[in-house]
Amino acid sequence: KLNVGVDTVQHGVEGLTYLLTESSKLMISETDFQDSIHVLGFSDELNKLLLQLYLDNRKEIRSILSELAPKLPSYQSLEWRLDVQLASRSLRQQIKPAVTIKLHLHQNEDQTAQVLQTDPSTLLHLIQQLEQALGEMKTNHCRRIVRNMK
């Protein structure tokens, strides 16, 4: 009926879907949406229809996107133990430390436990990397990104 190829229709639908989902994720205003679609070179009537489509469906799109987001487990508690091997049959003077961590997680109504074991130097490196990541979250650039994600 449209006298166009299947690929053209498919790309049009995918483009429209992308436009609506990204606009809904960012909760952009009417003027920002109009500025975004004005660049595409559509007629004023089509731009008004796209704006109305966006305004009518953005809350529903956001709710669907939030349902599709993966539900990650959350921290509940942590147990740890330090084991040190002081000697063995072949080596009488050795110190071999190991840190065992039991991480209790909560997801939906399920509770799981993950057991991890590492040496202290690897654990110190992991702590430094996590502290660096937390420090980077305090930068203005990351704050802007997080604000736009909400």
Automatic annotation (TrEMBL):
Domain of life the protein comes from: Eukaryota
User: PROSITE patterns from the entry?
Assistant: COMM
Q: Which residues form the COMM domain?
A: 74-141
Residues crossing the lipid bilayer are none
Which PANTHER family does the record match to this protein? COMM DOMAIN CONTAINING PROTEIN 2 (PTHR15857), COMM DOMAIN-CONTAINING PROTEIN 2 (PTHR15857:SF0)
Question: What is the name of the protein in this document?
Answer: COMD2 protein
